[in-house]
Design brief:
Layout lengths: L32 H25 L25 E2 L12 E3 L2 H7 L2 E2 L2 E2 L1 E3 L7 E11 L4 E5 L7 E6 L1 E3 L7 E3 L5 E2 L4 E6 L1 H29 L1 H6 L2 H27 L4 H16 L6 H6 L2 E5 L4 E6 L6 E2 L5 E6 L3 E9 L3 H10 L3 E6 L8 E12 L5 E9 L10 E8 L5 E5 L4 E2 L4 E6 L6 E6 L2 E4 L3 E5 L4 H14 L12 E3 L3 H13 L6
Antiparallel strand pairs: 1-2, 2-25, 3-4, 5-28, 6-17, 6-21, 7-16, 8-12, 8-15, 9-10, 11-14, 12-13, 14-16, 17-20, 18-19, 18-21, 19-20, 22-27, 23-24, 24-25, 24-28, 26-27
């Protein structure tokens, strides 16, 4: 019996979105139509943007994005609605005068609340203070340099002067730089073989003088001995006494030149007297002290330098062992510009040149007042300044040498000038100009070039009378550079303090023809 085998094929069905998946089956991949469209749009936008950037980098103009570049040379602001006032006698001659209507004055701030706001030239009211940079210095006349004046062959520093330490516990320490000393305070004690030798020479000379004088007295006082002794012997005795006196004087002068204290020299003399009384017997303990030299401070002051230490051997007597400075008075050195020297010299000649010295960081208005004693003759070729020197009292040592200071010199008020607001001056680096209202009843303003002598925070000094040099300079610059000649300002002249730059530019444009209408 034959049997047939049938193979059943199970068809694969795609489940519908609502039909559940069989157990263990994974969902088939499915691409959303909406997501595909979004991807294509993003790619298209990216291509367009990249293409636009590439085209702009090549300088291509893209429709809708092309911009027109402004030309600074041809672009200009709308001209002001002002008019140039002409000279009725010569219409072509420039008057440098503008007629400004009220609406323009309001827009430029010349007129506020129905009133014109202008500055008025007045006599100087601001004090002219000349600030000079400088520094403090020690007074050379009050500086004591202490050196080892005697020969320094084996001079040893035995000890240094002592002072009380400022930190607890209270104890003594060696003096050092910055310590205050009084006249007579011990600075150091030295031991010198040369000083000890000179003191011994003085003792020997004094002892020998005593003996030679005694011999001479014996020869001359006894008549019998005087008749028996030859005259030559007596003369020899007198010569020996005179030689002893010279030896004593030479030894004393050497000790004094070596700055040996007088009390030490007197102690040597007394010791020589004792040795003469004791028939030449000497005290070995005292002889050990002859080589000691005590150096004391000659003045009251501050130790600003100490170059020796204990047990140090001094081999060079040209080196400053100590420097003591009297700081109750300090020297001030300041630099003055050479263009101010004529007035400074005049004040110095009259004896009224003073300054107020203020240290860095000190409040404004404070300072130590003192006279200027010297104006240097030489001018620094680099800074074009001269050195001014003067002294100020430094009671209590408030100032230190080497401090930066500002020395302010009060100068007398300048003559033949007027004072105007600083805002009224327009300075373009070539000339300083102002707008003057010549007629208070008319809104007409004339451009003038002025000579500014000094500038302050809010005011400026302007010449009210021109010198011949100013007139000549103005004419030369007008001819060579086209600048305006100098004009004086008088007391009471009304000047603009607002809108100056705009009016100046408009006037220059009008007079040069760039703003001229056909």
């Amino acid at each position: 019996m034959s049997m047939s085998t049938e193979t059943q094929v199970t068809p694969t069905l795609t489940p519908s979105p609502d039909q559940p998946l069989p157990p263990g089956a994974s969902p088939p991949p499915r691409t959303s139509r909406l997501e595909t469209i979004k991807t294509l749009v993003i790619l298209l936008i990216a291509i367009v943007v990249l293409g636009g950037v590439f085209a702009m980098s090549l300088g291509w103009e893209i429709p809708g994005l092309a911009t027109t570049k402004a030309n600074p040379a041809t672009e200009r602001q709308e001209p002001l609605k002002v008019e140039v006032v002409k000279n009725p006698k010569d219409p072509k001659a420039p008057t440098h005068t503008l007629s400004v209507p009220e609406e323009v004055r309001n827009s430029l701030g010349i007129r506020k609340d129905g009133k014109d706001v202008l500055g008025v030239a007045t006599l100087p009211t601001t004090n002219l203070t000349l600030p000079l940079p400088g520094s403090t210095m020690l007074d050379p006349a009050r500086l004591s340099r202490i050196r080892c004046r005697f020969a320094s062959n084996g001079t040893e520093v035995v000890s240094l002067g002592q002072t009380v330490d400022t930190f607890a516990p209270t104890q003594f320490r060696d003096i050092r730089s910055g310590d205050i000393v009084r006249a007579g305070d011990v600075l150091a004690v030295f031991y010198s073989l040369d000083v000890g030798s000179k003191k011994n020479d003085l003792i020997d000379a004094i002892v020998k003088l005593k003996l030679d004088q005694k011999i001479l007295d014996k020869m001359t006082e006894d008549p019998i001995a005087r008749a028996a002794i030859p005259e030559v012997t007596v003369l020899g005795a007198r010569a020996a006494v005179a030689g002893d006196v010279n030896t004593i004087n030479r030894a004393v002068r050497n000790l004094e030149l070596w700055n040996i204290p007088p009390e030490d020299i007197e102690a040597v003399r007394k010791e020589a007297e004792e040795i003469s009384k004791n028939n030449g017997k000497r005290d070995p303990e005292k002889e050990k002290l002859w080589g000691q030299v005590v150096i004391k401070s000659p003045i009251n002051g501050v130790v600003i330098e100490r170059n020796v230490n204990k047990f140090e051997i001094v081999v060079d007597n040209t080196v400053n062992l100590f420097q003591i400075a009297d700081v109750d008075r300090l020297l001030v050195r300041a630099d003055a510009p050479e263009d101010e020297l004529p007035r400074l010299r005049e004040l110095h000649r009259r004896g009224v040149l003073n300054w107020s010295v203020r240290t860095a960081g000190a409040p404004v208005g404070t300072g130590l007042v003192g006279p200027v004693d010297e104006i240097g003759y030489l001018i620094d070729p680099n800074t074009h300044t001269a050195v001014l020197k003067g002294f100020i009292q430094n009671d209590g040592g408030a100032l230190r040498a080497g401090q930066y200071v500002t020395a302010s010199v009060e100068l007398p008020r300048e003559e033949k000038v007027v004072e105007i607001p600083m805002d009224a001056v327009a300075d373009d680096g070539r000339q300083c100009v102002v707008f003057v209202q010549t007629d208070p009843t008319k809104a007409e303003y004339t451009l003038r070039r002025v000579k500014v002598t000094h500038r302050f925070d809010k005011t400026a000094y302007v010449r009210s009378e021109l010198t011949d040099d100013d007139i000549q300079l103005g004419m030369t610059q007008q001819k060579e550079s086209g600048l305006l000649p100098f004009s004086p300002l008088k007391v009471g002249d009304r000047v603009l303090i607002s809108g100056i730059l705009q009016l100046k530019k408009e006037l220059e444009d009008r007079e040069s023809g760039t703003n001229k209408k056909d």
